[in-house]
Amino acid sequence: MFIGAAVWHIKHYRKYFSCSTGMMIGMTVGMMSGFMIGAIIGATNGMFMGSVVGLFTGMGIGAWCTRTCGIMSTLESMMAGLMAGTMGAMISVMLISDNLLLFMPILIGVCSVILAGMSYMIYKEHEEHREKIQKLDKYDMTIYLTAMFIFAI
Predict the structure, then answer these.
(1) Which of 15, 24, 84, 135 is most deeply packed, by most CB within 10 A?
(2) Residue 46: phi, psi to the nearest 5?
(3) Beta strands, E only, 62-104
(4) pLDDT at position 70, please?
(5) Of 63, 58, 66, the residue nearest 3 (C-alpha)
(6) Rounded Cα gap, residues 77 and 68, in angstroms
(7) Splitting the chain (153 residues) into consecutive groups of 10 residues, what average pLDDT does each group show?
(8) Which of 95, 86, 3 shows the shortest CA–CA distance to 43?
(9) How many CA atoms lie within 13 A of 84 on its CB side?
(10) In terms of pTM, does the model score above 0.90?
(11) For residue 128, with 0-12 CB atoms within 10 Å meaning exposed, 13-18 middle and 19 or more buried, which class applies?
(12) Which of 10, 25, 3, 12 is nearest to 88 (CA)?
């Protein structure tokens, strides 16, 4: 759900990203999505499935978010998804015999704080483009998050 909110925010500012901003966004979104999905799938289905799902999810979401920022940003996001997807699954498999149930809420909380910081960075860095951003209906975010929540279930 936090990834969906971050992607929704990125979608509105996408046309105005420089290459360095795109690299930062791609690395953040690719790593957080791959890491969280890889950790959840790895804890329930093992390291192989967690790594594969986390890898493809992180690479896909990161590349989709940075597709208008240039090839360097897209490659950065794909490398971040590759690394974080396997790392999330590895950490959850290593913690199964320890306190995995205590660790997962901490992990999701820290990742959501990082994604919120990324959204704030986008907001502050693109002050001059705010009037050019297309204003949408105030219920768009609610509809988008509801769809992401239903998809997650």
Answers:
(1) 84
(2) 100, 170
(3) none
(4) 82
(5) 58
(6) 12
(7) 70 71 86 91 92 92 85 89 92 89 89 87 73 62 70 67
(8) 95
(9) 28
(10) no
(11) exposed
(12) 3
